[in-house]
Structures are given as C-alpha cells and as structure tokens.
Design brief:
2 copies of one chain form a homodimer. Chain A is α/β, with parallel strands linked by helices. Chain A folds into 2 domains: 309 residues, TIM Barrel; 81 residues, Immunoglobulin-like (Sandwich). Chain A is 24% helix and 21% strand. Chain A has 9 helices and 24 strands. In chain A, strands 16, 17, 18, 20, 21, 22 and 24 form a 7-stranded antiparallel sheet that branches. In chain A, strands 4-5-8-9-10 form a 5-stranded parallel sheet. In chain A, a hairpin with a 4-residue loop joins strand 2 and strand 3. The longest helix of chain A is centred in the first third of the chain and has 16 residues. The radius of gyration of chain A is 21 Å and the shape is globular. The two termini of chain A are 36 Å apart. About 1% of the residues of chain A have low confidence. Chains A and B meet through strand 19 of A and strand 19 of B.
Chain lengths: 404, 404
C-alpha cells in the first residue's frame, strides 16, 4: 500500500524536500494530464497503463473541464448537474461525477501515484472559473470533505491562479486557510502561477506569495530552472517546477521543446535541489495529447527521467542542496550531506573540469553519466578538491559523486 | 577600399542599426581574438588568413596583453618600454609596439575588417590595469592621436570595465568624453561589461549606463539574447552582444557551448534587432585558441554565420526590429519596414505555426530555412495573417518572409 506523503519537517532550514510520514525520503516525479479524467474509458485505461509503466509518481489533473487549444470536445459529465446549453445548478453537486473522480484517484493510489488535484483554473467556457463566491466556498468544502480521506490527494488551489482575474488575492488567502482548517489529514497544498516569458521573465511579482505557511511547497511555472536555488532560499520550502515546458511539437512555445531539453530541465531542477514536472505535447492524428487527455506516452524523455529517478532512489536518502556556482556557472551542482552529489552540465560541453568546488580534504568516487545515453562510466582515479577531471566534451553529461 | 563605418542617424527612434557613411547598410559580424596581435608572426598570418576566409567584418582585440587561463606566455613587446621583471617606463611609449599595432589594423582594413580596439581590460599581471590616472589619460590621448586616422578603428573603452575595480565610474565618464573630444573622425565608441550569470542574471545594475550619448552603441556581455528588444528600447541605439558565450570545450562556462548554440545566439540576436559577436574556445594541443590568440578557425558555427550574413546582405537594406512576441514566445521575430522578415524558432520545434503575427491585409512569400543544414525551402502557397504554416518540427528552423 502506498504511504501517505507529507512534507518532511524542515531541519535547520537546510532541507526543502519531501518524505513519507514514516520519514523515508520521497522524490516527486510528476507528469501532467490536465483532464485525463474527462476522457473516454478507453483513453483513461491507456492513461493508467502508461502511468503504471512510467517513472511518474504524481500527476497534475483538474476537477473542472478545460477549454483550450486541442481540447474543445464537450464533456459528458460535470461537477455540477447541467450542461453548457441549459446552464448548471450550482446548488447541488453531480455525485456521479465525484464518484468517478474518487474512483480515478483510487486507481492512481493503486499505482502509487499522488493525485495533485487542481481546484480552479482559467480555461473555461462553462462558467466554473467565475462562480459566485458562495458556490466556490461550498465547492471547496465539498471537495475537501469528500476527498481528504484519500491518502494520495494533494490540493493545488489553481493552475495559473493569476489568470483567474475575477478572483482577488484575498480569495486565495481565504481558500488556502479554509482547506488547511477543514482537511483533517493536512494534505500537501500549493498554488501555481501563469508564466509567459516575454512578460514575466524579469519579475515574478505576479506570483502568489509562497511564504504563506499553509502552503507546503512552492508550485512554480517557469522556463528557467537556474532560479531554483533562489526560490528555495526565498520560500524555505520544497520547490516543484510544475510546468517548465513540455516535450512535443505543438505551435505554442511551452509545448514544443525537444526530449533532450525536457530531460535537461529535470536534471537541472533536481541537481539544484528542486523537482520538475513532465508533460508531452506531441501532435497526434487522434487528437489525444498526453498533457491534456492522457492516453499513451510517446516521447523520448520518459525513460531518461526514469533513469534519473533510479539514481536518486537507490542507496541512502538524497537531500540535494545546490552548491553555489562560483566560477562553475555551466554546472548545476547538488550535494546531499556532503556525501553524495549530482553535477550536471546540460548543453555545456566542458572537455574537463577543475574540481575546485569539492570540499577540502575530501576524497570522491566519481562516475561520468551520459544522461541521454543512460550510461554510467566510473572514473578510475579518486578525485580530490582541485583535481582535473577529463570529460567527454559533449552535451547532457553529469557526474555522480560519492564520498570515500 | 573599405568605407568608414559610422552609426546611421536614428530615424523616428525606429532604427538601431549601422551603416556606412554613404548611407548603405552595414551589418556587424564580429569575432573575438583578444590578443592575436601579441602572437608569433606565423600565428598572426594564420589569423589574417582565417579572417579573410570568414564572414567576420569586425574583430575585438586588446591593446594591452592579457593574463588569463590558456594565456600565460610572456609577450616580447608592450605599449610601454620595459618588462615584467624591471617594470615599465610610463613616461614613454614603445613606438615599435604601436607601429606594429598600426600595421595590424591596416591589414584588417585591407580585409574589410573593423578593429574594435579594447583600451583597458582587467586580466593583467603587468600593472596596465592600475596605472596612475595621468598615465591612463596620456595613453588614451596617444592612442586617439595615433589611430584615429584609421578608417576601421572602433574604440572600446574596456572589456569588462566593472572588473577594473580601481577605476571609479567618473573615470569612464571622463575617458569617453575625452575620446569624443579628441577623435576628429568620431569613430564608434562603446564600453563592455562583465557578466557572470549566477551574480548578474537578475540585474544589469553593474553596467555602465549606455544612455551616455557619446556611446554610439551598447556593447553588452550577456548569455540570454531574449533581452535584446528591451535593451534596444532602453538605450535607443544599436545593441551588439559582444560576448554571449563561445563555441568550444574549455572548462569555463562561457567557453563550452555547442556550435548549434553559437549559431542560435546569432539568429536570436539578429532577428531581435541586435548583433552578436562570435568566439571559439576549442582546446588545442598547440595551446592556440581563437578567442585569445587567433590562429585557425576550427568550429562548425562559422559557415552558418556566413549563411546568415548572406541572407541579410543580399537584396534591399534590412533594418530588423523585433516583433512583440504575443503568444509566439518560442519565436524571435524580426521585421524590416513591414516588408522583409526573419523569424527564428531556435531549439523550439513547432510542427506548425498559426501566422497570427503578420499584419492584416498583407501577403507573404515564405521560405523555411534550416539554419544548421543551410537549406532554403520555399513554401508553395502565399501566406496571410492567421494562415497555418506547416513546419518541420525540429530545432534550428527559421522563416524568411518577403511581402508580395
């Protein structure tokens, strides 16, 4: 049985990670299929089979249906009785919808997968993004009352909360406080921001303030994982990049990066002490796209993400914290308790590295990892601070360091 | 004979480009070989032969020798009489050094190459970066008096001026004013900043203020060309990214990007209305590295940069200005007079694009350019605003648009 996940208590401000309630470490490897729960039974079965064979142990999904490019089919069932022609009866819930939602969450639990449930989102043609306040409140209360008993539920207040322009900031403050008050099991809780690089690159002032102590982690959309160390310091809680761009070829900038880059984003994020969420946006004749509908995983990044997960999970607990770059600004360097490290060069191609970033008087066993080819090549000699380490001089290389 | 280059007068604040004094457009395609002028005759001959066969029409080079990784050999001649053991006589100049410098500048002129002369820089073991103020002033006066008659000279006050920590900001203000006052030919003049991403990514507050009207263009070191439109707007003058990282495999983050990324930086910069400077840092058994010593060009980016230069130079003058991203944030879009455009997708891989960024009621001939393979594939149909354009869905693709 899959254990209930909750944030590990912070220790001396050093740890910003997750663990099981029994204290064992837990590393989120998340994917995104916003409305897989609204698809046909066949597609849902594909989704669950894909997840079962994947490295993912968490999935982001919405309660409400989604109106967006590639996602214009009309659902057959909604959280409230009614339909888009006749309108919805906000005084009642469609219990059959929630029964199905529970079944879906239960199936995820059976696969050991956390359900990061998105409570509100802006992509809407039905009106669910601008219901009366009283309905929003009743909806939240109902969700929490029905679903808090699931061990694998997480609360995500919103996807891109700042695009829900009719809801003022105090709405989110109150909603977060309400969930914290009404959820007897204190499930993980977060809120996710819009990110449009041309607008938001120079400033994150539009974010909800993740300092709110009710938020268990910072759920961030951003395309540049360089900032993970800053966000860890700022919020002093785990950082999950719950959208950084998706592998695929759709016409929208967030959904057409290469598999190489998707894998690189995972490695950068993890080495810098954060976690990263996957998504796939491959155009498909059947118009089933993983990021929205679920279905079948088609990309080349998934198996490399599995490889990274395995590196983290084998052996002792990893609590990676970023090593300051110093002169090594081509390298995302994570170190766990000064005993185990993962350094990643991304698309930089050093032919060697002077290992000046290692602590003095320490001796290390080093493996050179090709994160794309998924090979691990031990370095023959022991490595000390300042030693010259020969490297392949090509992209997607990492180092695993184990202290001797 | 190569024409004297000077900045084209700004027109309605729209143009931030360069042209010849006769008004013809001129597009800088710059490279970097900081101290090629200090190398052996054989290496200098290689450098000039490499430049002659290259697309580069401008080179960044230092007056003073350089003390830096991969660059520790002792020069035989200096701007001042003396050597590192006995010290230097700052009351006199070594006229043979300057005669050689003039000859080098003249040889560049013969190849149609601008000499962007770096007057000060921080990488120093001889003391030239911290001479008495009076010596600095005399040195500048001497340089300008001797070299202003060269048609192809540009003044770069410094490479990474902010690392010359003993020189206060008013030193630079005064030096720029002095050059402007004493150069009868008003050569192009700029000043270049240090850029260490972990420190400087969130802020450019350490830059010299390129608003200074004596500066003819903003000479910027930065790794992210996304900001070129902002810098053009801010400074209202041409923007040249005189360091964005170099193709190669040295152990330093700025010097180990792939050829693909070097080419991508050129395309992004040019499409966004700026210009970009090349460099190569390939480790070499003979310890001759282009970025510092000159010698032979070895990289894979040069011929792709030549291809881009050809696209700009053929046909009518190009005055690319960035098209606001809107929803197309995977695309660096430059448009010249609403008649000719160059759009670049970089490492994004859209399988198609809805051409919503085109002006209404305009009709375009479009070519799909593979910037790496250097192929140009005409699109059969005419393209109008909002049309769907099928694309290869792989990295390094650009579009050339010509209005019909």
């Amino acid at each position: 049985m899959h254990a209930f996940i909750r944030q590990r208590p912070r220790s001396s401000g050093r740890e910003r990670h997750f663990c099981h309630t029994n204290g064992e470490p837990w590393y989120p490897f998340d994917t995104t299929a916003y409305v897989w729960n609204y698809q046909s039974e066949a597609v849902q079965a594909d989704t669950l089979a894909s997840l079962a064979a994947s490295p993912f142990n968490k999935i982001r999904k919405c309660v409400f249906p989604k109106h967006y490019h590639y996602n214009l089919a009309e659902p057959v069932r909604f959280p409230f009785p009614g339909n888009i022609e006749t309108g919805f009866d906000y005084t009642r819930f469609d219990v059959s919808f929630f029964a199905e939602l529970e079944q879906q969450i239960d199936r995820l639990a059976g696969l050991g997968i956390e359900a990061d449930l998105i409570i509100f989102h802006p992509y809407d043609r039905w009106g669910f993004s601008r219901m009366p306040l009283e309905v929003d409140q009743r909806y939240i209360r109902y969700l929490v009352a029905r679903l808090a008993s699931f061990k694998n539920i997480w609360w995500s207040l919103a996807n891109e909360f700042d695009l829900l322009k009719e809801k003022p900031m105090h709405f989110w403050d109150a909603a977060i406080a309400r969930i914290q008050r009404e959820d007897p099991s204190n499930h993980l809780i977060s809120i996710h921001n819009w990110h449009n690089p041309p607008i938001h690159y120079p400033s994150n002032a539009h974010w909800y303030d993740h300092h709110n102590t009710a938020l268990t982690h910072a759920s961030i959309q951003h395309h540049d994982l360089h900032f993970v160390p800053e966000w860890r310091e700022t919020f002093n809680k785990p950082v999950v990049i719950d959208e950084c761009c998706y592998e695929g070829n759709v016409d929208l900038g967030w959904g057409n990066i290469t598999a190489q880059k998707m894998v690189a984003l995972f490695w950068h994020g993890v080495c810098l002490g954060g976690y990263v969420t996957h998504g796939e946006t491959w155009l498909s004749d059947d118009e089933i796209i993983w990021w929205s509908h679920g279905g079948k995983l088609k990309g080349e990044s998934v198996k490399r993400i599995a490889f990274l997960r395995q590196l983290l999970e084998e052996g002792a607990a990893k609590r990676l914290a970023p090593v300051p770059w110093g002169s090594h600004w081509d390298t995302s360097m994570g170190m766990s308790d000064e005993r185990w490290g993962l350094f990643y060069f991304g698309d930089h191609c050093p032919g060697y590295k002077m290992m000046t970033m290692l602590p003095p008087d320490s001796v290390w066993k080093v493996d050179i990892i090709d994160t794309w080819e998924m090979t691990i090549t031990p370095v023959a000699q022991e490595i000390r601070q300042g030693d010259k380490l020969e490297l392949p001089g090509k992209p997607w290389i990492a180092l695993r360091l184990q202290r001797l």
